[in-house]
Design a protein that fits this description.
9-stranded mixed sheet; single chain; 15 strands; Alkaline phosphatase family protein
Length: 519
Amino acid sequence: MTSATFKPNVLLICADQWRSDCISGLGHRNVRTPHLDALMKEAMTFRNHFGQCTPCGPSRTSLLTGLYLMNHRSGRNGTPLDGRHTNLALEARKLGYEPALFGYTDTSPDPRRHHPNDPALTAYDEGVLPGFITPLHLPEDMGHWISELIALGYDLPNGRADAFRPRRGFVKPPDRGFRFIPTQHKAEHSETAFLTDEFIKWLSIRRTRPWFAHLVFFRPHPPIIAPEPYNGNVHPKDVDFPHRAASPEAEGRQHPLLAHEISNVARPDAYDEHNPLDLVRAADLEIRQMRATYYGLIEETDHHLGRVIAHLKESGQYDRTLIIVTSDHAEMLGDHYVWGKEIYFDGSFHLPLVIRDPRPGAKTSRGSMVEAFTEAIDIMPTILDWLGADIPRSCDGRSLLPFLEGKTPDHWRDAVFFEHDFRNVRSQRVEQALGIPSDECSYAVVRDNKYKYVHFAALPPLLFDVVNDLHEFTNLAGRPEHLGTELRYAQKLLSWRLVNQERLLTNMHVGEGGVFERK
């Protein structure tokens, strides 16, 4: 590394629950993302980027440790993360950076390192991944933002629960659905605006000091309620209806887990707080409005992304900052009657990824698209490689630096792999509904350009032809003419697990001459 003055900056931006297709620069007909579109013209866009797991906590753990779920094992929001694992922030500290978090990491601490009375063990997502400082930590209660709203004069006796209530007395026109009703707060006072304001303030005294920041936007995560004007920027009549079967009952026949997930959202407030609708049987207008407002939240996030990029340019930092924009997991948006992200469809796992490498050697690749499969676990090794650091042996991902330099890495993957642990340790709701124990509540997926195979520990498998059945309606598993394909993909999944199971010390040998390590 050169002197601190010339050390580059790193900005890892993660927007919560952003679908890969919801970018206007990729042709979406409703979403408007002018600032991300502009960045894409100066960056590289990865079209087939997938998260490793879901929901929030597990997916962020994979993003920030470079580990598959089967290795970090923090499978649910609230599942402790073993304290022995390294992560992006800890590795960046070895290079002299002090990684700063704006937002949250949804990390649940290792209880073996805390006293039973430690408040760190009383809330599932209050923890911060070790290695980060927290100029602005916004866990579930969003206390810093709520206190700002109260100081501005908003009446919020119940804190966050009140902050996302629909505006009282608002008269909704008949051609708009419930989620057209905006927030009580103004757009300039939203959580997204507050987060961005605080980040830009932090940057303002670091124009000549190298920094490393993880900026986490809460939006477009539910509740699906937007401030004006973002609540109305997309009209529901212009929105495509979700891809789904003729009825929830017909849809649920595909698989027991799908039937269970449909039943999960068939209750008011189940997915979208303060929403009185049954999102499975709601009127078409309401479903289209939900999607329209989600697109509005993306537009709001894009606006503030634009503010960050503008500040970097105005302050002379743009051309010495590595910028990565991605998401933790995606959003079903009513496809297959499901909302949220806890199901095996691509709609839950296919993510945006845009990387702007400021180095002169990356100029030729700017504005280009990569069709090769990439995974969330590739982010940590990419950043470390870009900084000239060693990539820990524990990392399951691979550096994307060759792509950024206009090359294709040797022996690159021809498929993506992702997993989902859907147990519910406290309530046992899913275990009772499906008649299986917690340790059998999991599946693993292999997906390439032809087929997608979903292997369950204790439930029937799934096989989709992703060329001819893009929206994954027809399960081919068990059909005689597809048994060979099913076997081949099951074997591929098994080989993946054999190669990628934890390997931290596996290339070491203790013997004559001491410890030998094969790099």
